[in-house]
Amino acid sequence: MSLLETQNVVRTYGKGTTKFDALRGVSLAIDKGESVAIIGKSGSGKSTLMHIMALLDQPTSGSILLDNQPTNKIKGRALNKLRNQTFGFVFQQFFLNAQDTVLENVMLPLKIAGVTGKRRKELALAAIRAVDLESKAQNKASNLSGGQKQRVCIARALVNEPQIIFADEPTGNLDSTTGEMVENILFKLHREKGITLIIVTHDPDLAQKCQRQIQIKDGLVVEGGE
Ligand code: ADP
Ligand code: ADP
């Protein structure tokens, strides 16, 4: 049974003469517990598709189904809540709060979810442990190496026990050894916690480590959609 489905998704940017269809009818279904790579050349529509699948952006037409439920009517706070509970995000540029500690960064999604006090700290520390960064919990995020920063991002993505982790070029800013370590953590979470992974990547080696490769070309799925 599919966890996340896109049905004939079109995303048009701009108006009039600058109008451009970044996605031209994307239908695909992702099962619970799958690991999927979204691949394709720069400008093919991968980020647009990921943003739409993660309910960060809305399609111009077409639908997104989560657990077979349409999502188009969910708006505002309810949408934020759904996203925060269901998805974790890992980006190439990290997006950590540099002046805050590792622990504070990882507690943030719990704060948004309304988890308070001791439990918030315990859950955050458990996620920090899962990425082997216990010893850095009280360090400022700005003082960490790139690989450590990305591990903090994974802990932050993980802390609400999401069904899906979306990773947009998660190793794009890392050297290959560090990148591999970050990949290993993501795939360990996939194996051991059954988290669905959706990874946008240019890296063929990373793509091959996923169970399925969905190739996007000029706003259409050309391979791996089924
Ligand atoms: P990819 O992630 O594969 O590089 P994107 O989804 O970022 O592709 O972009 C797909 C196409 O849509 C590109 O031609 C890009 O320039 C265009 N595009 C993306 N975002 C916008 C936007 N906000 N406004 C206008 N065009 C955009
Ligand atoms: P990626 O490296 O992930 O493909 P891009 O550099 O294509 O990312 O895009 C980065 C951000 O800028 C994305 O959020 C995308 O939607 C936006 N963007 C991309 N192309 C355009 C564009 N032509 N006009 C406006 N925004 C764009």
Automatic annotation (TrEMBL):
<dbReference type="InterPro" id="IPR017911">
    <property type="entry name" value="MacB-like_ATP-bd"/>
</dbReference>
<dbReference type="Pfam" id="PF00005">
    <property type="entry name" value="ABC_tran"/>
</dbReference>
<dbReference type="InterPro" id="IPR015854">
    <property type="entry name" value="ABC_transpr_LolD-like"/>
</dbReference>
<dbReference type="InterPro" id="IPR017871">
    <property type="entry name" value="ABC_transporter-like_CS"/>
</dbReference>
<feature type="domain" description="ABC transporter">
    <location>
        <begin position="4"/>
        <end position="226"/>
    </location>
</feature>
<dbReference type="InterPro" id="IPR003439">
    <property type="entry name" value="ABC_transporter-like_ATP-bd"/>
</dbReference>
<dbReference type="InterPro" id="IPR003593">
    <property type="entry name" value="AAA+_ATPase"/>
</dbReference>
<keyword id="KW-0813">Transport</keyword>
<keyword id="KW-0067">ATP-binding</keyword>
<dbReference type="GO" id="GO:0005524">
    <property type="term" value="F:ATP binding"/>
</dbReference>
<protein>
    <submittedName>
        <fullName>ABC transporter ATP-binding protein</fullName>
    </submittedName>
</protein>
<keyword id="KW-0547">Nucleotide-binding</keyword>
<dbReference type="InterPro" id="IPR027417">
    <property type="entry name" value="P-loop_NTPase"/>
</dbReference>
